[in-house]
Amino acid sequence: MELENLIFKKANKIATITLNRPKFLNALCDQLIKEINYVLDLLSKDDEVHVVILKGSHKAFAAGADINEMKDLKLISHIKKDFIKPWEKISKFKKPIIASVAGYALGGGCEIAMMCDVIIAAKNAKFGQPEINLGTIPAAGGTQRLVKSVGKSKAMELVLSGSTINAEEALNYGLVSKVVPLEDLDKETINLAKNIANKSLPILILAKEAILRSFESTLSEGMINERRLFQSTFELEDRKEGMMAFLEKRPPKFKNN
Ligand code: CAA
Question: Under CATH, which architecture does the 6-197 domain have?
Answer without folding.
Answer: Alpha-Beta Complex (3.90)
